[in-house]
Amino acid sequence: DIQMTQSPASLSASLEEIVTITCQASQDIGNWLAWYQQKPGKSPQLLIYGATSLADGVPSRFSGSRSGTQYSLKISRLQVEDIGIYYCQQASSAPYTFGAGTKLELK
Amino acid sequence: EVQLVESGGGLVQPGRSLKLSCAASGFTFSNYYMAWVRQAPTKGLEWVASITNSGGSTYYRDSVKGRFTISRDNAKSTLYLQMDSLRSEDTATYYCTRDEEWSFDYWGQGVMVTVSS
């Protein structure tokens, strides 16, 4: 199985701050990487697919990038509504594995 | 508007069966792969199974292979998950998702399954 190592596990940031979350794949997955946001008590929502493509309706302050087998999610200016848990997921091969999640809180 | 509405969850004893349903609307159901993803209490996300748009092919994680069966009825725009020989470790919220090239672009509200004696 492909392992997705996500960091940090938790993160405290201020409003308008730039936030970056990373995910390391255990092997080459190309651009088969998605990011999700899960707000407290809600279902996950797709943010990014194909490593860098923004899903429909997602604010442009979210962006995804790739460097080899390391993937990053960047929030350019943190807003209150961005609080929640973020997960990466590899879509390269079954079983389609998720990272352990990053809990983002307001400082 | 895409909507996915799960039903059929509940409390079940170990070794027993349960069948989840997911009613889809707002898109052409027969054009899309579909999947189930679960989340154990206070834990992360775990892909369970996927099915092609025609239903001709199915994919499972190893821990549910031989116990769970994903299926669909395109005429009814409904996705199913038949869960047999349930174990305590299957306790989770189960989400119905639309599977777009193995990432999940729409999610239902989730249905809780508790396996306990």
Describe what this molecule looks like in 3D.
The complex is a heterodimer of chains A (107) and B (117). Chain A is an all-beta fold and 107 residues long. Chain A has no helices and ten strands. Helices cover 0% and strands 49% of the residues of chain A. Chain A has strands spanning 4-7, 10-13, 19-25, 33-38, 45-49, 53-54, 62-67, 70-75, 84-90, 102-106. With 117 residues, chain B is mostly beta strands. Helix content of chain B is 0%, strand content 55%. Chain B has no helices and eleven strands. The relative contact order of chain B is 0.31. The mean pLDDT of chain B is 97. The A-B interface holds A 32, 34, 36, 38, 43-46, 49, 55, 87, 89, 91-92, 94-101 and B 37, 44-47, 50, 59, 61-62, 95, 100-110.
Offer a quick outline of the entry:
Chain A is mostly beta strands. Chain A is 0% helix and 49% strand. The model of chain A has no long low-confidence stretch (mean pLDDT 97).
Number of helices, counting only DSSP H or I runs of 4 residues or more of chain B: 0
> How large is the share of residues in beta strands of chain A?
over 45%
> How would you describe the oligomerization state of the chains in this entry?
heterodimer
- As residue ranges, the low-confidence spans of chain A are none
Spell the H/E element sequence of chain A: EEEEEEEEEE
Described by strand count, sense and barrel closure, the largest sheet of chain B is: 7 strands, mixed
Summarize the topology.
The complex is a heterodimer of chains A (107) and B (117).
Chain A: E1 4-7, E2 10-13, E3 19-25, E4 33-38, E5 45-49, E6 53-54, E7 62-67, E8 70-75, E9 84-90, E10 102-106
Chain B: E1 3-7, E2 10-12, E3 18-25, E4 33-39, E5 45-51, E6 58-60, E7 68-73, E8 78-83, E9 92-100, E10 103-107, E11 111-115
Parallel strand pairs in B: 2-11
Antiparallel strand pairs in B: 1-3, 3-8, 4-5, 4-9, 5-6, 7-8, 9-10, 9-11
